[in-house]
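Review box. Two proteins, two foldings.
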Amino acid sequence: MTDARETKRRPTNRAGIIKVDGKEMMVVLRDGSKTGACVRLVGPGVMPENFRLVAPMERIDADCVVVWRRGRDCGVRFE
């Protein structure tokens, strides 16, 4: 089986914040690349379809769109 991603993802386990409509939700970045990431929602709530992801330790500050969901994890593409 081959990976269809355009760029290779690197594993991480760092904190991030998603921002949408003036609200913030904590997430953990599971992996990341130049084009997207896998994030896990930490607290209660539902991951919105579009949001801003901020993760200073990973140098990420990007608008995102969800491309897949699996439980509390979701894959996002940077816009």
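Next protein.
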Amino acid sequence: MHNTFLGQGLVDEIIFNVAPVLECKGLNLLLDIANCQYKDVQLLDFKSLGSDVVQLHYAVDK
């Protein structure tokens, strides 16, 4: 679903919360390997949410 919205230009911002946890294998929510498209992003803001979690706020170029 994420790829559909990104591919159609319907997403203008993305917010990621990054937590300091190491896992063996992560789940990639944004990339559909068969229909991968490169999108430029610009960092708008970042902030600490406590417990070493950082929030990254990006604008998605269209």
